C-alpha cells in the first residue's frame, strides 16, 4: 500500500483520483496542529484518528474493502474519548453512531432495490457509524456532504485520466467518508445560512 500512498501524494497513476482528498486531509492536519494549544485532552485522540482513517482509506482505495480492525479501534477510541473527556455526551455519541450505521444501510438497501446491484457496502456503513460516534448527530450531515463532494471530484479526475471507463463504474467511498469525518472533526459542522 506504500506505493499507492506515494502515488496519491504525488498525484501519479492510480493515486491521482485520491490526491485531492489526501491533500485536503493533510491541510486539515496543519489546521489542527495550529490549534493544538486549545485542544487539551482532545489532541491525543485527534492524532490517533488521522492515521487510522488514512489506513482505512488506503485499504479501501486499493481493495474496495474497509477493514474491521481499524474501524473497531476507532470506534473504541471515539467512545472512550467522550466517556473520559465529555461523559455527558457518551450515550448520545453511541446513538449517533447507530443512526449513522442505520442510515447508510438504508441507502444501500434503496440503491440496490433501484439499481439491481449493490452500491454502498457494509464497511461504508460502519465507517459512517464511526462518524456518528466521533462527530455526534450535528456532524453527520456535514461529513456526508464533504464525502459526496470529494467522491464527485475523485470520479471526475478518474474519468479524465481514463481510470474509469464510465460514470457507472464503482469507486471506493471509504476514502471520502474518512475525509468527511476528518474535516468535520477539525473544522466542525457546516453552518446553514
Draw up the topology in text.
Elements: H1 2-9, H2 19-34, H3 36-39, H4 43-63, H5 68-85, H6 90-115, H7 122-161, H8 174-187
Helix pairs in contact: 2-8, 4-5, 4-8, 5-7, 6-7, 7-8
Characterize the structure shown:
It is built from 8 helices and no strands. It is mainly α. 37% of the residues are buried.
Quaternary structure annotation: single chain
Flag low-confidence runs.
Answer: none
Task: Determine the number of helices (DSSP H or I, runs of at least 4 residues).
Answer: 8
> What is the string of helix and strand elements?
HHHHHHHH
Largest sheet composition: none
Residue fraction in strands: under 5%
Between the first and last Cα atoms, what is the distance in angstroms? 41 Å
Question: Mind telling me the C-alpha Rg?
Answer: 16 Å
Précis, in short:
The protein has 193 residues and is mostly helical.
What labels describe this entry?
single chain; 193 residues; mainly alpha; 76% helix
